[in-house]
Each structure stands twice: as structure tokens, then as C-alpha cells.
């Protein structure tokens, strides 16, 4: 496996896990939410991160893979910095 794929996958996983945690926190903060809602948000988020990570690691061309990483980084910065 090429080095750029390993770096891109690791970078995506780091950002993706942050986004999953933010999604879980938002599910918890909703009015009338149950613990099952938070678990469902975690399951769906982790499944999507896992699928995209496999695509970045094995399938996507370099431009698309780095585009996904950049979009994830932008989403993390935007979500965590917006007040």
C-alpha cells in the first residue's frame, strides 16, 4: 500500500471520529432523546466512517481521496469553531 493512502486514511479516520463524537453529542442534546438514539448515531456514524475509510485506503484515486480528507477537515473546523 502506498504511503499517501496510509496518511490519507489515518487523517480521515481522525476527522471522522471527531465528527461521530459531535453527532453523538447532538443526538444526546435533542429534546426527548433516549440513550438508544445516541447509540444509533454512533453506529451509523462509525459505519459510514468505516466504509469511506476502506474506500480511501483501497479504491479512490488520489485526488478524490485527498478531497474527502480535505472536506472532512473543513467540516471538523467549521463545526467545532462555530459558536
Write the layout of secondary structure elements.
Blueprint: H1 3-29, H2 35-58, H3 62-81
Give a written overview of the molecule.
The chain is mostly helical and 83 residues long. The protein has one domain. Helix content is 86%, strand content 0%. It contains 3 helices and no strands. Helix 1 packs antiparallel against helix 2 (35-58) and helix 1 packs parallel to helix 3. The longest helix has 27 residues, at 3-29. The model has no long low-confidence stretch (mean pLDDT 94).
Q: Helix tally?
A: 3
**Straight-line N-to-C gap:** 40 Å
Q: Helicity, in percent?
A: over 70%
Q: Summarize the helix and strand pattern as letters.
A: HHH
Strand content: under 5%
Tell the overall outline: elongated
Q: Overall mean pLDDT score?
A: 94
- Low-confidence segments, given as residue ranges, are none
What's the structural domain tally?
1
Tell me about the largest β-sheet.
none
Secondary-structure content class: mainly alpha
Q: What is the β-strand count?
A: 0
Rg is: 14 Å
